[in-house]
C-alpha cells in the first residue's frame, strides 16, 4: 500500500489520541455503528484532502466502516499530526500522504497520490482537490459522484468555478450546513484560535487589546471568547451588516488603519487577502502579536513583514519575531497559516463531531443517489442537517418540546391574526 508519512513508529500514540477524540464524537460514532451494519459505501473510493487530525481520523474510520476505501492527504502543510497519519496507515490500512511541514511540491504530490487512487467521492477543505481534478485529472470526472467542501473559502472558490461554467462535478457545501458553520466556525474556531495564540506565546489575554479582522462566523466566535477572557476587543469589517452586528454585540468597530497602532494581538479571519500589510506593520506597537485563522496564508502580507525586518528570530516553536529597523518586534505566529491548527490541535472533537457527521452522511447520500447530481454547488439536504442536530442533542441528553397538532396548524395557516 502506497503512503507517505513521517514515522510509522508514532502509530500507537496516534491511536491513543484518536480514541480519546472519539469519546467526544458520539454522533459520528453512532453513524459508524449504523454504517458497519448497512455498509452504504461499499465500492466507494473516498479520497480526502483534510487537516490530518484525530477528528479526521475518526471520519476516515467511519467511512471505512461503511464499506468505503478511504485515503487521506493534508489540506495544509502545517496542520498534519504525524502520529495520526501513522495510526491510519499502520493500524487501519487507510493510506495517509501527509507530513507536517511538507513543502509546496510535496503537498501537491500528496494531492496527486490520493487522486491516483481513482476516487468516486472526494472530500475537500479549501477546494485544492477539486481544482486539481479539473486541471490535471480530468479523466476522473465521469466516475466522480461528487465532492464535499468543508470550509467557507473552499465554497467561495467552488461557487466562482460554478459561475464561470468551469465546475464539472457536483459539490455539496458541507460548510453551509447550519450544524457546521454555526458551531464549528463559531465555537470551534473561536476557542481553538485563542488556544493557538496562547500555546504559541503564553501571552495573557486579559487586559490585552485584541483586534479581529472579519466578523463572520469565525470572527464572532473569536470575539466573544476573547472578550470572555478579559480582552478589549476591536473588530474590523468591510461589510456594513456584519459591522453593525459587531457594534450591537458591544464591540468597538474601526478601520484597521486606525487601530493598527493600538492592538496587542491581531487575528485575521476573513478569507480575504492582504488584510494586514506594510503600513499596518509600520504602525504596530513593539511586541505586537500577529496571527491568521482564515483558510489560506494570504491574509497577512508575510513577504512585506520579512522585507521590513532587519532580523527574524525564532524564540518559540510557532513564533517568528521580526525585528524592525527601529527596534520594534512584531511576532508572527504559525507562519501566518491557520494558527489554531499550526500552533494548537484545531477544533475540539465535540464540535468536529457535527461537521464530520455531515461529511459522513453526505457521502452516504452521494453513494445512495441513483442518478448523479447536476454539476453545481449543492446545499446539504435539510434532513441531514436536522438529523445531525437531533443526534447531537440526544448524545448530550437534552430533550426538547414537540409541536402539538394545534400548533402545527397555527404555524402553517394565515387566517388567524389579532
Ligand atoms: N481556522 C479554522 O479552523 C477555520 C474554520 C472554519 C473556517 N475557516 C476559514 O476562516 C475564514 C472565515 O470563515 P467564516 O466562516 O467566518 O467566513 P464569513 O464569510 O462568515 O466571514 C468572513 C468575514 O470577513 C469579512 N471580510 C472580508 N474581507 C475583509 C477585510 N479586508 N477586512 C475585514 N473584514 C473582511 C467579510 O465581510 C465577512 O464578514 C475562511 O477562510 C474560512 O475558510 C477557518
Count the strands?
A: 15
Q: Give the C-alpha Rg.
A: 22 Å
Bound molecules: nicotinamide-adenine-dinucleotide
Query: How much helix is in the residues?
Result: 40-55%
Structural class: alpha/beta
Number of helices: 17
- The main sheet orders its strands as 9-8-7-10-11-14-13-12
Tertiary shape:
globular
Mean residue pLDDT: 97
Sheet bearing the most strands, described?
A: 8 strands, mixed
Sequence-ordered SSE layout with sheet pairings:
Blueprint lengths: L10 H12 L3 H13 L6 E5 L4 H12 L3 E5 L8 H11 L3 E2 L6 H12 L5 E4 L3 H9 L9 E4 L2 H12 L7 E3 L4 H24 L7 E5 L3 H12 L3 E5 L3 H9 L3 E2 L2 H4 L5 E4 L9 H6 L4 E5 L9 H7 E8 L2 E6 L4 E5 L5 H4 L6 H20 L8 E3 L2 H14 L9 H7 L7
Parallel strand pairs: 1-2, 1-4, 2-3, 4-5, 5-6, 6-15, 7-8, 7-10, 8-9, 10-11, 11-14
Antiparallel strand pairs: 12-13, 13-14
The protein binds nicotinamide-adenine-dinucleotide.
Q: What can you tell me about this protein's structure?
A:
The protein has 418 residues and is of the alpha/beta class. Helices cover 45% and strands 16% of the residues. It has 17 helices and 15 strands. The strands form two sheets. It has an eight-stranded mixed beta sheet, sandwiched between helices. It has a seven-stranded parallel beta sheet with strand order 3-2-1-4-5-6-15, sandwiched between helices. Strand 2, helix 4 and strand 3 form a beta-alpha-beta unit. The radius of gyration is 22 Å and the shape is globular. Bound molecules: nicotinamide-adenine-dinucleotide (NAD).
Amino acid at each position: 500500500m502506497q503512503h507517505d508519512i513521517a514515522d510509522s513508529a508514532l502509530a500507537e500514540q496516534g491511536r491513543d489520541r484518536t480514541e480519546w477524540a472519539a469519546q467526544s464524537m458520539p454522533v459520528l460514532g453512532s453513524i459508524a455503528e449504523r454504517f458497519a451494519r448497512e455498509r452504504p459505501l461499499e465500492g466507494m473510493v473516498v479520497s480526502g484532502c483534510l487537516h490530518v487530525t484525530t477528528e479526521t481520523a475518526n471520519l476516515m474510520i467511519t467511512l471505512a466502516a461503511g464499506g468505503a476505501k478511504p485515503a487521506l492527504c493534508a489540506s495544509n502543510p502545517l496542520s498534519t499530526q504525524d502520529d495520526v497519519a501513522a495510526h491510519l496507515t499502520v493500524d487501519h490500512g487507510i493510506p495517509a500522504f501527509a507530513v507536517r511541514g511538507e513543502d509546496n511540491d510535496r503537498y501537491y504530490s500528496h494531492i496527486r497520490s490520493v487522486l491516483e487512487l481513482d476516487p468516486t467521492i472526494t472530500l475537500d477543505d479549501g477546494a485544492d482537490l477539486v481544482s486539481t481534478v479539473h486541471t490535471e485529472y480530468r479523466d476522473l470526472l465521469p466516475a466522480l459522484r461528487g465532492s464535499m467542501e468543508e470550509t467557507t473559502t473552499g465554497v467561495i472558490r467552488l461557487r466562482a468555478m460554478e459561475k464561470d461554467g468551469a465546475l464539472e462535478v457536483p459539490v455539496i457545501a458541507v460548510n453551509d450546513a447550519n450544524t457546521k458553520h454555526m458551531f464549528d466556525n463559531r465555537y470551534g474556531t473561536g476557542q481553538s484560535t485563542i488556544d493557538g495564540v496562547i500555546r504559541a506565546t503564553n501571552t495573557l489575554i486579559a487586559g490585552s487589546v485584541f483586534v479581529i479582522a472579519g466578523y463572520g462566523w469565525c470572527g464572532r466566535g473569536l470575539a466573544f471568547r476573547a472578550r470572555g477572557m478579559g480582552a478589549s476587543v476591536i473588530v474590523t469589517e468591510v461589510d456594513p451588516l456584519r459591522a453593525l452586528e459587531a457594534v450591537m454585540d458591544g464591540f468597538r468597530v474601526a478601520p484597521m488603519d486606525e487601530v493598527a497602532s493600538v492592538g496587542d494581538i491581531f487575528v485575521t479571519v476573513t478569507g480575504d487577502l492582504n488584510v494586514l500589510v506594510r503600513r499596518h506593520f509600520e504602525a504596530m506597537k513593539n511586541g505586537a502579536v500577529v496571527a491568521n485563522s482564515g483558510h489560506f496564508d494570504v491574509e497577512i502580507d508575510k513577504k512585506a513583514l520579512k522585507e521590513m525586518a532587519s532580523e527574524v528570530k525564532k524564540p518559540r516553536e510557532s513564533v517568528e519575531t521580526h525585528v524592525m529597523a527601529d527596534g520594534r518586534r512584531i511576532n508572527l505566529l504559525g507562519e501566518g497559516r491557520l494558527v489554531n491548527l499550526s500552533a494548537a490541535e484545531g477544533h475540539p472533537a465535540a464540535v468536529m463531531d457535527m461537521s464530520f457527521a455531515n461529511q459522513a452522511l453526505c457521502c452516504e447520500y452521494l453513494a445512495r443517489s441513483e442518478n448523479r447530481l447536476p454539476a453545481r454547488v449543492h446545499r446539504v439536504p435539510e434532513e441531514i442537517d436536522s438529523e445531525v442536530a437531533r443526534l447531537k442533542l440526544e448524545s448530550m441528553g437534552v430533550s426538547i418540546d414537540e409541536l402539538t397538532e394545534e400548533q402545527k396548524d397555527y404555524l402553517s395557516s394565515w387566517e388567524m391574526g389579532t
